[in-house]
Design brief:
By secondary structure, this protein is an alpha/beta fold. Helices cover 35% and strands 23% of the residues. It has helices at 15-27, 40-53, 65-74, 89-97, 113-118, 132-143; strands spanning 2-6, 32-35, 58-60, 78-88, 102-106, 121-124, 158-160, 169-171, 176-178. The strands form two sheets. Strands 3-2-1-5-4-6 form a six-stranded parallel sheet. Strands 7-8-9 form a three-stranded antiparallel sheet, with no helix packed on it. A hairpin with a 4-residue loop joins strand 8 (169-171) and strand 9 (176-178). The relative contact order is 0.19. It binds S-adenosylmethionine. The site of S-adenosylmethionine (SAM) has 18 residues, from strand 4 and helix 6. GO terms for molecular function: tRNA (cytidine(56)-2'-O)-methyltransferase activity. This is tRNA (cytidine(56)-2'-O)-methyltransferase. Pfam families: Trm56.
Length: 181
Protein backbone atom coordinates (compact mmCIF):
# COMPACT_ATOMS: atom_id res chain seq x y z
CA UNK A 1 0.00 0.00 0.00
CA UNK A 2 1.13 3.51 -0.80
CA UNK A 3 0.08 6.71 0.95
CA UNK A 4 1.08 10.29 0.23
CA UNK A 5 1.93 12.67 3.07
CA UNK A 6 1.40 16.26 1.95
CA UNK A 7 3.31 18.79 4.06
CA UNK A 8 3.18 22.57 4.15
CA UNK A 9 -0.17 23.02 2.39
CA UNK A 10 -1.42 26.62 2.72
CA UNK A 11 -5.21 26.52 2.26
CA UNK A 12 -5.59 29.49 -0.09
CA UNK A 13 -2.32 29.45 -1.98
CA UNK A 14 -1.91 25.71 -2.44
CA UNK A 15 -5.53 24.73 -2.93
CA UNK A 16 -5.15 23.79 -6.57
CA UNK A 17 -1.77 22.13 -6.39
CA UNK A 18 -2.63 20.03 -3.33
CA UNK A 19 -5.86 18.95 -5.02
CA UNK A 20 -3.74 17.91 -7.99
CA UNK A 21 -1.32 16.01 -5.74
CA UNK A 22 -4.33 14.09 -4.36
CA UNK A 23 -5.95 13.43 -7.72
CA UNK A 24 -2.66 12.35 -9.26
CA UNK A 25 -1.89 10.07 -6.32
CA UNK A 26 -5.35 8.52 -6.69
CA UNK A 27 -5.09 8.12 -10.45
CA UNK A 28 -1.63 6.53 -10.22
CA UNK A 29 -2.51 3.98 -7.55
CA UNK A 30 -1.97 5.41 -4.06
CA UNK A 31 -4.59 4.42 -1.51
CA UNK A 32 -4.87 7.79 0.20
CA UNK A 33 -3.38 11.13 1.13
CA UNK A 34 -2.61 12.48 4.58
CA UNK A 35 -2.86 16.25 4.72
CA UNK A 36 -0.72 17.87 7.41
CA UNK A 37 -2.85 21.05 7.40
CA UNK A 38 -6.45 21.88 8.14
CA UNK A 39 -8.43 22.19 4.92
CA UNK A 40 -11.54 19.99 5.18
CA UNK A 41 -12.98 21.41 1.96
CA UNK A 42 -10.06 20.06 -0.01
CA UNK A 43 -10.61 16.59 1.43
CA UNK A 44 -14.31 16.84 0.54
CA UNK A 45 -13.51 17.85 -3.05
CA UNK A 46 -11.26 14.85 -3.57
CA UNK A 47 -13.84 12.53 -1.95
CA UNK A 48 -16.41 13.88 -4.42
CA UNK A 49 -14.12 12.90 -7.28
CA UNK A 50 -13.79 9.38 -5.88
CA UNK A 51 -17.54 9.08 -5.52
CA UNK A 52 -18.00 10.18 -9.11
CA UNK A 53 -15.17 8.26 -10.72
CA UNK A 54 -14.78 5.25 -8.41
CA UNK A 55 -12.24 3.61 -6.15
CA UNK A 56 -11.81 4.23 -2.46
CA UNK A 57 -9.07 6.83 -2.27
CA UNK A 58 -9.25 8.74 1.00
CA UNK A 59 -7.91 12.03 2.35
CA UNK A 60 -7.24 12.44 6.06
CA UNK A 61 -7.35 16.08 7.00
CA UNK A 62 -5.14 17.85 9.53
CA UNK A 63 -2.86 14.98 10.55
CA UNK A 64 0.14 15.39 12.82
CA UNK A 65 2.94 14.48 10.40
CA UNK A 66 5.45 13.42 13.03
CA UNK A 67 2.97 11.08 14.69
CA UNK A 68 1.92 9.64 11.31
CA UNK A 69 5.51 8.93 10.29
CA UNK A 70 6.23 7.34 13.66
CA UNK A 71 3.11 5.16 13.47
CA UNK A 72 3.87 4.18 9.86
CA UNK A 73 7.40 3.09 10.78
CA UNK A 74 6.18 1.17 13.84
CA UNK A 75 3.92 -0.78 11.47
CA UNK A 76 6.94 -1.69 9.35
CA UNK A 77 6.26 0.94 6.68
CA UNK A 78 8.99 2.80 4.80
CA UNK A 79 9.16 6.52 4.15
CA UNK A 80 10.35 8.11 0.91
CA UNK A 81 10.75 11.88 0.95
CA UNK A 82 10.77 13.53 -2.48
CA UNK A 83 12.97 16.57 -2.97
CA UNK A 84 15.27 17.67 -5.74
CA UNK A 85 18.27 17.21 -3.40
CA UNK A 86 17.96 13.47 -2.90
CA UNK A 87 19.35 10.38 -4.57
CA UNK A 88 18.11 10.35 -8.13
CA UNK A 89 15.10 8.05 -8.55
CA UNK A 90 16.67 5.72 -11.16
CA UNK A 91 19.37 4.92 -8.59
CA UNK A 92 16.89 4.23 -5.78
CA UNK A 93 13.92 2.70 -7.54
CA UNK A 94 14.82 -0.98 -7.11
CA UNK A 95 15.21 -0.51 -3.35
CA UNK A 96 12.01 1.54 -2.92
CA UNK A 97 9.94 -0.85 -5.00
CA UNK A 98 10.59 -3.58 -2.42
CA UNK A 99 8.65 -1.71 0.28
CA UNK A 100 5.26 -3.27 0.94
CA UNK A 101 4.06 -0.20 2.80
CA UNK A 102 5.36 3.04 1.40
CA UNK A 103 4.71 6.61 2.53
CA UNK A 104 5.70 9.21 -0.07
CA UNK A 105 6.29 12.66 1.44
CA UNK A 106 6.03 15.85 -0.61
CA UNK A 107 6.34 19.45 0.49
CA UNK A 108 5.01 22.80 -0.65
CA UNK A 109 7.42 25.39 0.67
CA UNK A 110 10.55 24.32 2.52
CA UNK A 111 10.00 21.12 4.54
CA UNK A 112 11.34 20.78 8.13
CA UNK A 113 14.86 19.34 8.08
CA UNK A 114 13.74 16.56 10.40
CA UNK A 115 11.95 14.99 7.43
CA UNK A 116 15.29 14.35 5.74
CA UNK A 117 16.42 12.49 8.86
CA UNK A 118 13.19 10.55 9.41
CA UNK A 119 12.92 9.37 5.82
CA UNK A 120 14.31 5.97 4.84
CA UNK A 121 15.08 7.48 1.45
CA UNK A 122 15.47 11.05 0.26
CA UNK A 123 14.81 10.79 -3.44
CA UNK A 124 14.90 13.22 -6.34
CA UNK A 125 12.87 12.84 -9.49
CA UNK A 126 15.78 14.29 -11.39
CA UNK A 127 17.96 16.78 -9.52
CA UNK A 128 16.21 19.84 -10.93
CA UNK A 129 13.39 21.88 -9.38
CA UNK A 130 9.89 21.13 -10.66
CA UNK A 131 6.61 20.21 -9.05
CA UNK A 132 5.24 17.92 -6.35
CA UNK A 133 2.55 16.80 -8.80
CA UNK A 134 5.11 15.67 -11.36
CA UNK A 135 7.28 14.13 -8.64
CA UNK A 136 4.37 12.02 -7.33
CA UNK A 137 3.30 10.92 -10.81
CA UNK A 138 6.72 9.86 -12.00
CA UNK A 139 7.56 8.10 -8.73
CA UNK A 140 4.31 6.12 -8.66
CA UNK A 141 4.81 5.19 -12.29
CA UNK A 142 8.44 4.09 -11.86
CA UNK A 143 7.91 2.01 -8.72
CA UNK A 144 4.76 0.26 -9.97
CA UNK A 145 4.75 -3.44 -10.76
CA UNK A 146 1.61 -3.28 -12.88
CA UNK A 147 1.04 -0.32 -15.18
CA UNK A 148 -0.83 2.27 -13.07
CA UNK A 149 -2.46 3.69 -16.19
CA UNK A 150 -4.38 0.44 -16.43
CA UNK A 151 -5.83 0.77 -12.93
CA UNK A 152 -9.54 0.23 -12.70
CA UNK A 153 -11.73 2.19 -10.34
CA UNK A 154 -14.91 0.42 -9.38
CA UNK A 155 -18.07 1.69 -7.78
CA UNK A 156 -18.08 5.15 -9.36
CA UNK A 157 -21.06 6.93 -10.83
CA UNK A 158 -19.31 7.47 -14.16
CA UNK A 159 -16.94 5.45 -16.33
CA UNK A 160 -15.13 6.76 -19.37
CA UNK A 161 -15.06 4.69 -22.52
CA UNK A 162 -11.86 5.70 -24.29
CA UNK A 163 -12.55 7.04 -27.73
CA UNK A 164 -10.52 8.48 -30.56
CA UNK A 165 -12.61 11.60 -30.81
CA UNK A 166 -15.14 13.14 -28.43
CA UNK A 167 -16.29 11.96 -25.03
CA UNK A 168 -18.02 8.71 -24.18
CA UNK A 169 -19.10 8.31 -20.60
CA UNK A 170 -21.26 5.63 -19.05
CA UNK A 171 -23.54 6.79 -16.28
CA UNK A 172 -23.51 3.75 -14.02
CA UNK A 173 -26.55 5.00 -12.15
CA UNK A 174 -28.72 4.83 -15.24
CA UNK A 175 -26.92 2.03 -17.07
CA UNK A 176 -27.22 4.25 -20.08
CA UNK A 177 -24.48 5.50 -22.28
CA UNK A 178 -24.37 9.18 -22.95
CA UNK A 179 -21.97 11.97 -23.39
CA UNK A 180 -21.24 14.85 -21.09
CA UNK A 181 -19.70 18.08 -22.12
N1 LIG B 1 11.63 25.39 -2.37
C1 LIG B 1 11.30 24.20 -1.69
C2 LIG B 1 12.53 23.60 -1.01
O1 LIG B 1 13.61 24.13 -1.16
O2 LIG B 1 12.40 22.57 -0.33
C3 LIG B 1 10.65 23.17 -2.63
C4 LIG B 1 9.49 23.66 -3.45
S1 LIG B 1 8.83 22.44 -4.57
C5 LIG B 1 7.79 23.35 -5.64
C6 LIG B 1 7.62 21.58 -3.63
C7 LIG B 1 7.82 20.09 -3.55
O3 LIG B 1 7.93 19.55 -4.84
C8 LIG B 1 9.05 19.66 -2.82
O4 LIG B 1 8.89 19.66 -1.42
C9 LIG B 1 9.23 18.24 -3.37
O5 LIG B 1 8.44 17.31 -2.63
C10 LIG B 1 8.68 18.36 -4.79
N2 LIG B 1 9.75 18.42 -5.81
C11 LIG B 1 10.09 19.49 -6.57
N3 LIG B 1 11.09 19.17 -7.40
C12 LIG B 1 11.40 17.88 -7.16
C13 LIG B 1 12.35 16.97 -7.70
N4 LIG B 1 13.20 17.32 -8.64
N5 LIG B 1 12.37 15.73 -7.20
C14 LIG B 1 11.51 15.34 -6.24
N6 LIG B 1 10.60 16.15 -5.69
C15 LIG B 1 10.53 17.39 -6.15
Amino acid sequence: SIVILRLGHRPVRDKRITTHVGLTARAFGAEGMLLASDDPKLADNISDVSKRWGGDFYVRNNVNWKAEIRKWKEQGGKVCHLSMYGVNLPDAVSEISKAEKLMIVVGAEKVPFEIYELADWNVAVGNQPHSEVAAVAVTLDRIAVADPLKNEFSGGELTILPTECGKRVVDNRQQEQGSIE
